[in-house]
Design goal:
8 strands, disordered C terminus, 5% helix, globular, eight-stranded antiparallel sheet, 1 helix, mainly beta, 42% strand
Length: 164
Amino acid sequence: MNNVTNACDLVDTAPLTKWSSGPTPIVHREYPAQSADYGGVLLCQIKYTSTSPVDDVTTDDAEISLQVEFTGVAGPPKYDEWKSADTVPQQGASSGDLTGLGTRSYWYAGHLTATDANSDSYAVGVQDSNVSVKVEVGIRRARGEAEARLLRNSCLPEDFSRIG
């Protein structure tokens, strides 16, 4: 964690521009470990917005967030909380366990249709050793635009070793 001065350096934002073109200010926070009880946190939020070409009113959004939490000696991995919240059964959403990524991992995908827009959200949570990593991608598109149901481009860090 000490090698990361900007958590957003771990994220590839290029796929977001497929869904929206205007970058907004990037938010990142790095909280190093203060003691053995508190393991440290890396946060990154990147969002793109643009006006829909379909109706020139609705805002199209594409965003990604990265959360990395290092487990202290006193607490459970943050992964447990994330998985519990993300995998609650709900209409328009599905989730499940992943294999081959960390010690434990899960995925989530959800779709919401509203009067003016369609929203899709995706999440992957991973726990390995003392680190929990969660990447969330959200895409909101005006009705009549191509939906983002199949997110084929990866925004995940290619090299998770840069985090630890």
